[in-house]
Description:
The chain is an alpha/beta fold. The chain has a single domain (15-318), classed as 3-Layer(aba) Sandwich (Rossmann fold), CATH 3.40.50.1820. The chain has 13 helices and 8 strands. The chain has an 8-stranded mixed sheet with strand order 1-2-4-3-5-6-7-8, with helices on both faces. Helix 11 (274-279) links the parallel strand 7 (261-266) and strand 8. Helix 2 crosses helix 13. The radius of gyration is 18 Å and the shape is globular.
Amino acid sequence: MRGLTPLNAKLYGSESDRPHQWPRQCVPASEITSMMSQLEKIAIAPHLVFDALTCGERGAPLVLLLHGFAGSMNCWRAQTTLLAAAGCRAVAPNQRGYSQGARPDAGDSSNYQIERMMDDALAIVAACGYGDARFHLVGHDWGGSVAWALADRHPQRLASLAVLSRPHPNAFNRALQISDGDQARRSRHHAAFLEPDAADMVLADDAKWLRERWAAASVPPAAMQEHLSVIGNKETMEAALAWYRARGAVRGPLGPIRVPTLYVWGDADDTVGRDAAEGTEDFVAAPYRFEVLPGVGHFAADQTPERVGELLLQHVAAFPA
């Protein structure tokens, strides 16, 4: 069994792989608080217009942040501000199905296959004015799945990769096969989301299931309300669950990741066990850092926004675009 990595430990390999001094590492608190994320519309096609939180100067190094379930672009509100204050351009969209203007028919699973989400991400980068330039990619949960897939398919596009909670798919699949492991139990909600009445179940009694899950993971009430403002209606929830239905029970294997990678896992995450989390390093063939957040659950960006922001700043600084 691999030992846990202490907080602040750096596993970027050789000295030459370790972070250099970020040009704006010491940012005055007054400057951070004066910067606020803006809500923008980003169109990649007439029928695909994404709501997005943006912050920072246009043309600055781009950090694209992809949320997961059950969440929204709002999980990145604190981190977009921190990244912008450090000299980046941070863009956090409500992904396909979560944005009202980018919600194709949820009854057609082909609209929500992961390839479509990958296409969306690259098209959003282009629509933000970065063309084919390299950028930093961050993902949580389903956003992490998209991020792993993009790093596998388009490594030349990424300066760095950071993933919260969602382990490398190969590590996840391996953990599912451990006869005495607990990953299958932790993932049992995936099958429930395939049921026809799943949206009604999740939203019943004023979204009781969601509220209880968030509360168990110490998500602040204000963050709960921000997420519910996006996913607290049946139309959006059906589209969010279409991500699971499009994938079904199949999780395709990926090759080794050849992008500098930060993987962040809270050891109180009820959806990802230690075997999958620690096993992720076996599938990264690049500078790799594994950060364990003691006592933190599945929604780390909401639960510990400052710590997550600090880790992202260090990682982006280590591997400039």
